[in-house]
Write a structure and sequence with these properties.
Helices cover about 30% and strands about 20% of the residues. It contains five helices and five strands. The N and C termini lie far apart (about 50 Å). Bound molecules: coenzyme A.
Length: about 170
């Protein structure tokens, strides 16, 4: 872990030249190289997305990033909702407040856009993101996300659904 002064970290909007650094940080953290994903996100920023992605820069080097959005595309959700899609900090700079600082900047942006609630999806077994989001104030909401593998046939039959079971219990 590197020793550094958090107050020297500058939070600024993403630039095209940041792409390789961001992709590199994600690869270190997740073992995934998502250049296409970030190119698409950058394009959305350039097309005038409400909430651009921001990065944390220390002495000219990108050490972290956050990406989110606002919108009400999700059925039944409030209109003034914010989303955090991804947040990442270079492993050498983690646990020093960089992600919290990125989120604080984002929170200001959300508030200016009249967002009340911010959502994110995290696996219950994710021992990095879950404690982080809880530490910065997120709590489990009263909605669940549902998923369907559309490459497979959906389950059929007249058996009770999970919803029925929950109602009975
Ligand atoms: C999760 C992640 C973004 C946190 O970044 P970070 O800069 O280390 O986080 P911060 O230092 O700002 O932490 C803020 C608070 O969360 C806590 N926290 C952060 N990571 C934690 C962890 N793994 N376990 C427990 N607490 C954690 C910190 O202790 C801190 O609490 P404090 O303010 O009481 O001291 C970073 O660890 C990361 O990039 N992880 C891997 C990538 C990843 O999973 N990205 C998401 C892909 S969608």
């Amino acid at each position: 872990m590197k020793d550094f002064d958090l107050s020297k970290t500058v939070i600024r909007g993403i630039r095209e030249s940041d792409l390789d650094s961001i992709v590199g940080i994600e690869e270190k953290n997740l073992g995934l190289k998502r250049k296409g994903y970030w190119q698409r996100e950058l394009k959305k920023n350039q097309e005038g997305r409400y909430l651009g992605s921001v990065v944390a820069e220390l002495e000219g080097k990108v050490i972290g990033f956050i990406l989110g959005d606002i919108g009400s595309r999700e059925f039944g959700m409030p209109e003034n909702m914010g989303w955090i899609h991804t947040v990442g900090v270079h492993p050498d700079y983690q646990h020093r407040g960089v992600a919290r600082k990125l989120f604080e900047d984002y929170k200001e942006k959300f508030l200016k856009l009249d967002v009340d609630f911010v959502y994110t999806i995290v696996s219950l077994s994710d021992n990095m993101q879950l404690p982080f989001f809880e530490k910065i104030g997120f709590r489990q909401g009263n909605r669940i996300y549902l998923e369907l593998d559309i490459r497979k046939e959906p389950p059929v039959g007249d058996k009770l659904t999970d919803f029925d079971y929950r109602r009975i219990m």
